[in-house]
Amino acid sequence: MRSVEEWRGKTDDSMPPPRVRDRIFQRHEKRCYLCSNPIKDVEGYDLDHVQALVNGGENVESNLRPVHRFCHVAKTAIDLKAKAKAAKVRMKHNGTIRPTAKIKSAPFPKSPKAERRMSKPPLPPRPLFEERKS
């Protein structure tokens, strides 16, 4: 087998050409790299980045693997969850987001008006329906 130069996408959105897709598919013996089950021609397949682009992966042939479409959806959700957690930790570290806990301090003294309002007895409950007098 002759050596072929590795395909590199010009951008992260670049799709590999059909010859590269076929080369990756054949290299992995027509099996999903996530579940190891054979991929049937009628099912179709996706190419998944082993290290996701959002997590710093490259759009190169060596980072692509054939996967079933339903396996791809599950892995993408896991990748996005990991990316969101990393972004949240980074933002918290940088001070971009504030902590959600309230600052504990001594309570402020009540104003005289608030104290009067709190000392009044509660009103009796009103009936939901009043009876009519005929």
Adjacency order of strands in the biggest sheet: 1-2
What is the assigned CATH homologous superfamily of the domain at 18-94?
A: His-Me finger endonucleases
**What is the succession of H and E elements?**
HEEHH
Mean pLDDT: 85
Percent range for helical residues? Answer: 25-40%
Form type: elongated
Number of continuous helical runs: 3
Q: What amount of the residues lies in strands?
A: 5-15%
Question: Strand tally, please?
Answer: 2
CATH architecture of the domain at 18-94: 3-Layer(aba) Sandwich
Structural class: mainly alpha
How many angstroms separate the termini? Answer: 102 Å
Largest sheet: 2 strands, antiparallel
Q: Radius of gyration from the CA trace?
A: 31 Å
CATH fold annotation of the domain at 18-94: His-Me finger endonuclease fold
- How would you describe the oligomerization state of the chains in this entry? single chain
Task: Explain what the structure shows.
It is a single chain. This protein is mainly alpha-helical. It has helices at 18-27, 69-94, 112-119; strands spanning 46-49, 64-67. The protein has a domain at 18-94: His-Me finger endonucleases (His-Me finger endonuclease fold, 3-Layer(aba) Sandwich), CATH 3.40.1800.10. Helices cover 33% and strands 6% of the residues. Strands 1-2 form a two-stranded antiparallel sheet.
